[in-house]
Specification:
By secondary structure, the chain is of the alpha/beta class. It is built from seven helices and eleven strands. The strands form two sheets. The chain has a six-stranded mixed β-sheet, with helices on both faces. Strands 1, 2, 3, 5 and 6 form a five-stranded antiparallel β-sheet that branches. Strand 8, helix 5 and strand 9 form a beta-alpha-beta unit. Helix 2 crosses helix 3 and helix 3 crosses helix 4. The longest helix has 19 residues. This is Lantibiotic protection ABC transporter ATP-binding protein. It comes from Lysinibacillus capsici. One of its GO terms (molecular function) is ATP binding.
């Protein structure tokens, strides 16, 4: 039997009568990196927002860590969707301190997460002066404060330069060894294939493929197959 940290059963979400997520059944193995792939508008962000409680499904179940998802599970889920929620006038440590106080997390955790994301030497530099890659890593540090079992990253490499992308890739790959499962959403295939164990490809809100990630051209042609097939269904 597979050791799954997260499973969705026939998840549905419709806006104004249109299905954005259509009977989606995902299986995410514990301590792995799972790539949720699809073109823009495929339903990736909507799916992640349901898993994180920002949106309610119209139908279907989310099973987290062996039980039906409830809001209590959010203490075990770290999230970075869109841009990191940073205070530009505060340092990395101060940004984290604000969160530890608000969430009642021991302040000893601040240095631990800064080390994980390789931001220990930023000193008095304010977050507003950080590069995009550093801001993303600080956003991930915030998401890791509560020692989550599951970390959700939505398009984390958007706007990053090659060095920022490489650093982020290395960071993501290191997390499963620390007992953290990662769901990584993206539409950039060559980015994802270098860090993931398994993938799910969605198009038109439907899951067209789920399983091990093929490499290079194989992944590209599989992706195009799924997208084309679901476009035909949708029109």
């Amino acid at each position: 039997m597979k050791d799954l940290i997260l499973k969705t059963n026939n998840l549905n979400k419709a806006f104004k009568g249109q299905n954005i997520v259509d009977n989606l059944s995902l299986e995410i193995k514990r301590n792995s990196v799972y790539g949720l792939l699809g073109p823009n508008g495929a339903g990736k962000s909507t799916t992640l927002k349901m898993i994180t409680g920002m949106l309610r499904p119209n139908a279907g179940d989310i099973i987290f860590n062996g039980h039906l998802w409830s809001r209590k599970d959010l203490q075990d889920i770290g999230v970075l969707i869109e841009t990191p929620p940073l205070y530009d006038n505060l340092t990395a440590k101060e940004n984290l301190k604000v969160r530890t106080i608000a969430l009642g997390i021991p302040q000893s955790r601040i240095d631990e997460v800064l080390e994980i994301v390789d931001l220990t030497n930023t000193g008095k530099k304010r977050a507003g002066q950080f590069s995009l890659g550093m801001k993303q890593r600080l956003g991930i540090a915030i998401a890791l404060l509560n020692k989550p079992k599951l970390l959700i990253l939505d398009e984390p490499t958007n706007g990053l330069d090659p060095i920022g992308i490489q650093e982020l890739r290395k960071l993501i790959r290191s997390l499963p060894e620390q007992g953290i499962t990662v769901i990584l959403s993206s539409h950039i295939l060559h980015e994802v294939e270098q860090v993931v164990d398994d993938i799910g490809i969605i198009a038109g809100g439907k899951l067209g493929y789920q399983g091990p990630a093929p490499q290079g051209h194989e992944l590209e042609s599989l992706f195009m197959q799924v997208v084309t097939a679901n476009r035909k269904v949708g029109h």
